[in-house]
Structures
1.
Amino acid sequence: MPDYKEIFVKTDICTGCNTCKLACAVEHSKTKNLFEAMFETPKPKSRLYVEWVPENTRIPVLCRHCEDAPCINACISGAITRSDQGTVVTDTDKCIGCWTCVMVCPYGVIGRDKALHKAYRCDRCPDLEVPACVASCPTKALVYESVDTFSADRRKAVSKELVTGKGV
Amino acid sequence: MGNHYVIVGGSAAGMAAAHTLRKKDKAGIITVLSDEKSPPYFRPMIPYIINGKKKASHITLSGNGMFTEQGIDVRTDTAVSALDTAPKTVTTKSGEAIPYDRLLFATGSRPYMPETIKGLDTKGVFSLKTLADAMAMARRLQDTNHVVMLGGGILNLKAAFAMLEKGIRVTLVVYSPEVLSQLMEPEDAFLIRKALDNAGLEIMTRCSATDVVTDAGGVCAVALSNGKELPCQMVCVGKGVIPNTDFIQKSNIKINKGILVDKHTACNVKDTFAAGDVAVTHDPVTGEKVTTALWTNAVEMGICAGLNMAGIKTRYTGTFGIMNATQVAAEPFVSMGVVHTRNKDVEVYIEKSGHTFRKIVFNKKGTRLIGAVFIGDITNAGMYRYVIREKKPIDRFKSHLISHTLHYGHFM
């Protein structure tokens, strides 16, 4: 597979502030402006979810654009395909709202737009250099990188930690 | 020259296998033999053909979803009539013998037409299975103002709605006490029933057809077991399906209702495989042998068969005997695993409101999730499917399963 950039989550850094959710909803609004977006109908929807795991961990959960995506195989209308950018995309014209994708997604990250009767999910903001959620994250818990770069960065960080004895 | 893969059947399982084979084996020759006249299409979409919402060109398989590979030879209108596993050939109805290296049976299923109903061969009587059926129904619909549908399954409901949307009167005749009896208990279907009633579908339960009454134009009424006669111009039979094994029965391939396969989708004879509606698979929850007739299952199993045919040993995880999702009227629902719980020694949690219904089923000891029904709110249904299928230990998040607050964080 080509070296696509993906959205990674550093769960140890996320504070659960929900800024990413807000940025996501705004980016997927009609006006793309927070103040105007708040008054849009239907209300703009965030495509990622920040979940709480006891005791005190928060994690943003979003479409993983799985390499072997169950939703692509399950879709009964052929609406879900893999894009050239490596993302899994639902063609809203073809989506009939049967929710088979919701039934098979093991991450629970496919949303149901009741007004439009269509499924929706993270699209990694194809019009932006960096997805809105990543750009907005105040603690840099969300990272937009290729798998190789991300793991190399992690290796460097851990090595530094080992040598200096300090957390990074 | 590479392997010659021959696939009998050009729908979900067959085409999923073909595209998987193409991905994994660039050199092999892949021949798909389909008895249908139209090129492969998304079969679950045919209700939209009846009411004209979609055209045949909108639902073609090629180039969409996972069906994006090239170089697959699909031969339409090519029914297979004979099979010889030594030497390895299939023979088409027109008499052509086609040799294979590896063979997949993806012959699917056909509608069950009950013998107890007389006159089902009348003009105007349909069962919705193929694109051709849907197109014929659309034509007949032009001179129809009342349709009687026999059977209260999901396919009939979808077809019923397609016709209701065109302003045609539709009566559903159901032998069971309630619609969707395969997917849920009668009392659990109340929200769906309410939505169907509100949408204007007329439903007669605990009742069956005995005769199709005809005149010069074909069907003109249906006689029922309760003595009533419903005047109508069209009848649609949706009483379940039976696996297509006709040409295979005379061979040495093991059949018990459907074709028996091992955990790698292989039949009892070397280099033969089966997938989709025709294959007998296992239910990971109950351990029972099952055949299903679900697009999603057929694609999954077809992919698995394709991998195995390409020489990549892949275990098929099996499928729930019961699993489906859709939206009828304004009510989305998902049903999966063990959902018929009456007189069963299981732990059941039910939560109902005016808008939602939720049923969560655990095993007797309450240690494993084995089934779930969601109506109205189907959020995260896929995670429940995952917990059921993978038999995940649930002690850490059982309360979240029950209260429908499960999220991915609970798995971490």
Note: The beta strands of chain A are 5-9, 49-53, 57-61, 80-82, 88-90, 111-113, 118-120, 142-146.
2.
Amino acid sequence: MTTETSVLQDTRPTPGVRQRLAAFRQGYPHFFLLGLLVGVMLILALVPYQLVAGPWLRAGEDVPYLLQYFRMGTTTWFVLTVSGMAMGLLIFIMSSGMTLTFGLMSVLNLGHGGFISFGAFCGATVVVYFSAWAASGNLFLTIAVLMMACFYAMLITGALGVFFERVVIKPVYGDHLKQILVTIGGAIILMELIHVIWGATDVPVPRPQLLRGAVIIDQAIPFIGGAAIEIYRLMAVIVGLILYGLMLLVINKTKVGVLIRAGVESREMVEVQGYRINLLFLAVFVAGSALAGLGGAMWGMYEQIVNAHMGEHLMIMVVVVIILGGLGSITGCFYGAILVGLINLYVGYLEPRLAGIATVGLMVAVLMWRPQGLIPVLRH
Amino acid sequence: MAEPLMKLSGVHADIGQYHILHGVDLELPKGELTVLLGRNGAGKSTTLRTIMGLTDVPRGRVEFKGEDITEWATPRIARSGIAFVPEDMGIFQLLSVRENLELAAASGPIDKQRLEWVFGLFPALKKFWQTDAGNLSGGQKQMLAIARAIIEPRDLLLVDEPTKGLAPSIINDLRDAFRELKDQEATILLVEQNFNFARALGQTVAVMDDGRVVHAGSMAALAEDEALQQELLGLSLGAHQ
């Protein structure tokens, strides 16, 4: 009897483990989802294709489409994962500004896409103007071109943000319906402004010489040997992580960050402490616009072509990310963006046309599980 | 009576489409604790919010240290030396105790001596210095809300029902803290429903009804006059001993 009991205890998962797993799922939904997504894809990559598709291959029939995932192997899985992270981090840069303005100011700025497009064109202008430097292959000159492109994009979109907040947003604080209408109108004006300044045709953006090509992982490294990772994607990962770190530092360790977090909870009580929340709103809106510009400039170099409507198209992913992450949450936005990037690449590997549907599907699934998003923000 | 630090003259206030204050006249003597009494819905909390510039004031005048502050924005009113503790305490739940107090010290870093004095009044805050305010108990949250109001020297404290929903032992701690503030000659306007608490602390009293001040005078006089208590408040303070 004693032996039977101990065998049962050894082989069955104890309630404690289940409870711990449930607590992890609830407490860290972002890690849970990321782990689930990347883990499932890794398992698919590890299972031999011949084993799964054997019956169809032996019978000489077509192998079901979905089983193609088992063909990718760990090297492709690694490439997809790193590329998905790079895409996710670029989306994060573009989305973070919008989630910040929504979290603090409760402003639904659907004109955010206009800032992304504007930033992309500003960045492209610098890269094209200094194309000789970019093509030189000199590390110092390449960094200089990249820095100038990013700063120029941020400067112009930040300045546009000042005008946009004062003229377009300020009169409609507190009224979401009007915000939606006027910010869509603002986005149309920004797009037309791009047509006026740069013309209506697509503008190619030559990627700097040093950022072309890929890093090949040594063949001797098990599982991921031979994987080719684009240098630009690696740079996007590094820039995205640095930016996320900086944002966390500002939000958590500086008085401005404390004010922003306090403002997300209760704008009125921030004013009662003696702080002019309107100035904070303006500063956050400008920062958000500049981040959209930076994201647009980097996305332009990623796609190597820019057009006035790119921001409009990217807004679908941006909106999915900020809803998925929990409106107003920077950390939620970060993990939401990485999830969106990964699912785009994983689904796009099999069927590129389904990538967009998968993105929206991910949002629907997460909202059915957690209607408040991955990491919700408490609001008074 | 000491000279008034604050004076409200014929103040009307609206919240949305509702007209809440119907001409409030009130004077707050400098260095005294004034208690604002009245039934629910009489306009006590709205009076405090109006002083802080949080409601629309279509008519009337609010003067502070001789200046007309009626049209001032809330941050300017706060920086002129008025601290406000609302009924819901208004603490930032996702910020730590430290961050809540650092934010309240709007003019710069917290003065260490002042902080030690606040810790002396509310020792729990020292213990939970790095804890998120949302994780504090109701009494500790109220202590934090009051500590936030006094972390820098202020000319006037507006406190809305600090004892609401608190255990008797916590109420005693708060009473001791207010006594110490009184000893330092702080000017305080306290909205309170707990009559024992109000009587123990109040030097002057104003009673509101239907958006107006219907009685103003010394707390000692009101406490002794049971007929007046019945008339103004519908009960006797003595019955609440």
Note: The two ends of chain A are 57 Å apart (CA to CA).
